[in-house]
What we know:
The complex is a heterodimer of chains A (about 325) and B (about 190). Chain A is mainly α and about 325 residues long. Chain A has helices spanning about 5-35, 55-65, 75-90, 110-130, 135-165, 170-175, 195-210, 225, 235-260, 275-295, 300-330. Chain B has 2 domains: about 1-95, NADH-ubiquinone/plastoquinone oxidoreductase chain 6, subunit NuoJ (Four Helix Bundle (Hemerythrin (Met), subunit A), Up-down Bundle); about 145-185.
Amino acid sequence: METSIWRPIIYLVGIMAFAGVNAAYLGWCERKGAGRIQRRPGPKEVGPAGLLQPLADGIKLMTKQLLVPQGVDGIIFRVAPVIAMIPAITSMVVIPFSGNIQARAMELSVLLLFALASLAMIAILLGGWASGNKYAIISSARAVSQNLAYEIPMLLTVIAIVMISGSMNLRDIAIDQQGGFWHWNIFRFENGHFLYMWVGFIIFFICSIAETNRAPFDMAEAESELVAGFMTEYSSMGFGLFMMGEYLNIVVGACLTATLFLGGWDCPFGQTPGVWWFLLKIYILIFTVIWVRWTFPRTQVYRLLNLSWKILIPFSLVNVLVTAAFIKVF
Amino acid sequence: MQPLVWPPMANPTLFSLEGAVGIIFLLTIALVVTGGLIAVVSQRLVRAVSGLAICFTGLAGVYYFLLSPFVAMMQLLIYVGAVSILIAFGIMMATPEQEIGPGNAWISRLVGPLGASVGGLFFAALTILGLKTPWQVFPRTAEASGDIEQVGKTLLTSHSMVFELISIVLLMAIIGALVIARRGRN
């Protein structure tokens, strides 16, 4: 059954289409959301309710000249935006959209996602360094220290989930939570996990916002301090690829949160599980991410690092211990 | 975890599943070799680190082909994701890019040929060893399947001493880092 050549081709096209539509239209959603929160209409000229705005943006970005300023490291400068996109799209291969929509249900898919997430960090580091611009270098140094710091509590929280489900396969973790919201990891009744799992959920959600470099943690492109951070020297599609990579990382983060904590494709009342519930969950999470970005002001670097090293890491370590105790005792 | 194609065919055609797997294997080898060459040859340190990252990525592919996906993922997560990034970070923070001066011309002229000959000798020795050794094919057992459950069980039973020693080393590293960080504060 697996040997058919059409299955990989259909999944390849489907994943590319999903990634492209999301990368384009999340930009529109964000501008609409920002407009709503700041009491202005947002994009509205191109097409009904501005719905053709992403298309216009895409044409604009693609027809602009790709400037390579003097003094940059040419090869790395051109390759970095591509590296920003590759891990984000590749991650979608292991995401279980529903019980039977998943490109490859490999064991260790959780590990694969984190390995790919650490590759995305390289893109920011190399892009910022290759620009030969001091703002860009400061920005990539900030981005790396931030991502390294937030990877640790994120992995520790995932360890708790893996301990409960007994598997590193995202599909098995999702199947383990089927049958109504009281089976989801965040509200799990069995063994009394609901007493503390919301702490893990909050830690994971904060980390996923920080890992995707979104406000209030967007120290890497703090436009009031660093022009545009690592993207300062990029024009046209180089900039476009970085932006698309950022939106895709948000999508992957939301998918991971929905699968690990919110039961994947499960219906809250155990009736009609399917891909629609998964999409509903990830878009609610993505809306929350946009909402948080336009509601809270940017933090400072030392506060950001203190939050991770002094609060999130101790809490997630205790979370692992408490999870082990609950599994063994109850 | 099952191998991609099992049992392996003797002479697969190019446009079969085995052929595609073979091409992917050759690509991972090419990644290792080109990455290693970039790391050695390039003049700029950051490019050398990028080459190192490419080489590690290829190595992860080789581990995957050796049926140990867990080691492959760890290679990506630790070596590509953390080690190369920390090296690059150190380079960025340390000194600005400087021209490689002539230095001691006598020694620098000798370094290249010496390194090349030592590397060549090692390569030749390993190749001869690999070709001459009568390789035995062991049956695949549960312990050798490389999946994470077996790794965990062996780490906590037959190899628990190694596990404990590694944790002591890591603990010492953490305490050392804390001591150094604290000292610089006042």
